[in-house]
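Recall the central idea of this unit: under ordinary conditions, the amino acid sequence of a chain determines the structure it adopts. In this exercise we apply that idea directly, starting from the sequence alone.
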Amino acid sequence: MSDARRPDSPPWYLTFFEEDFWAVADHEYTPERTGAEVDYLATVLDASAPGRRVLDLGCGTGRHAVALAERGFGVTGVDSGGWALGRAEAAAVAAGVSVDWLRIDLLRELPWPVDEFDAVVCVQSFGWGSDTRQLRLLQEVRRVLVPGGLLILDHSNVLAIAGNYVPEATFETGGLRADFRRTYRTASGRSTGEIEVRRGDAEPVVIHDDVRMYQPAEVRDLLTRAGFTVERVDADFAVGREPAPTTRYVQFVARSRADTPAAITAWEGRRDTRGSTQDEVHPSTLDLRWSPDEFEFVRPWVDAAFGSAYEDGGLAELSRAYPLSDPFSADLAAPALSGHFGLDLAPDMVTAGAGATGLLHACAALAVPGPVLRLAGGHPDLPRWAVRLGAETITTRFDDLAAALDRHTPSVLVLDRPTITGDLFGRERLEEIAETARACGTTVVLDEAYAVYAGPGASCVPAVAEHPNLIVLRSMSKGYCCGGLRVGFAFAAPESTRRLREITPPLGAGGAGLAVALRLLAQGDVFGALRTRITEVKPVVARTLRRAGLKVTEGAGCLPWVTVDGERGAASVVWEKRGVRVKEIGPVEVVCGAEGVSGTAFGGRSGEEPGSGGSGRGDGPLYKIAVPLSEARLTAFLDAFADAR
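Accordingly, the structure predicted from this sequence is:
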């Protein structure tokens, strides 16, 4: 047995579960009861766990751990009580099975010194700490589980206990006497008390406890906040038995929700390619995950902005700027942004931050307690961060959006404009969505980072003046090719701006980067030459891909990418055969639509192909292909698809 426990100030449970407690508990945890509980655990694990590695939390004397090991599971038992673990070790030896035993304080010694597991079981060992500590425990359970791992959590239902609650009781048998004295505090949900244990002629021993008693709904909420999906709730260790208010023991069968990959994941492992269009490992590969050649079409305006900023102040002077009186750069930026978008933006409608990514991270806090509603195939970062903060994420399609808003009343709806498939839906469509969301108490976060290609006149920023629940994000990356400035802007009505600033780090936009960004924006629409080139080349790329047998969605003509449906794996063969690297998005799964939510799409255009705007797709991957804009990259692309031209 490994002993990792080093408490500085021992809480009650580190001394409670010792020999005197077990002298009483052994009469409650009979072999018949243990056998029924193990039958239940093994049945659920066999049916639902992705593997047979099991962690038993609060394993006590090993009554479940040893029995599960006898059934072929690889078990690790963890408990804070040294005496109980000694008995557990002896029981395993007697049964002829191998179990790893570890002594730690599960609530305080985080992270746990264990490997990953396919399943975790926790029987009658929940509620020893505060709600916060219980949530941390569940989050740690999720950390040690494999993706899609299973948790079976048993707890005592306070609804059943409260109906028979007595402040004092006595248990006697064969020279053992236990006097129970306890108090239940309704406001805190905690039961505090003591057990005076007399064994034969020995001096009585008094042990104290302090347990948080939960209603099943409270446990479900903690599991959801910790990142689990509850698949089933059983009563009294009987598979499929529905719990009732009088159910004494309630079991939650929950699965760890898989993390949505971060947006940056698709780029990990690729060296800095600012000076190269070639792949470091496979020099012959054409990398169409990005568009390094679009910068040549905006270079004059970018160079002018840098030149103007540094002439006025110089890099050193700009870098010393520390505007404590204008921490979100609203007073500084509002005039330039008003001119850029052609409307009057007051400072209390503007928040500058560390790019769209930094502002999305702040908006994730608005999503708590959730849920977050997102479109299939949308940018993953805000939902991913919101899940880490305890919010549930629900995925739907444009077709089902109105019904999903009404059904789930999310805290936040996050939209990308354009969508991954290039639907640059208009302001009228957005305003209809915002109105519906407002009636549900939902904040709409509209990420317009990719909308810059269409120019400032096509932005939905003006809509924030009419919709107090709308936040529009813009940045200096994408078409501006100035992502390294780390400057982004959030536009919202004053009340939403106030809420956003409460959770957005101040001084997020640096002085030098902000000076360049505002001068670049002051030049207006700088994308004319780039749009012209995109509209020339994009149809050629789409036609070539279709001739190669691929299902292509072009999206708006001004956007420098197309998407390909990867159904049946045919697309991946095409990329491998021709030495082309593309960005894989997916699989695009839809939770809300799978549950039968239906409704009317917002502003769907007549003749619109099912699947546009992130709707109607299958579950296969979606591939995003950057349009090659330079003659050299376009030639390389056409050469790779020479047989399809």
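The CA atoms of residues 110 and 140 lie 8 Å apart.
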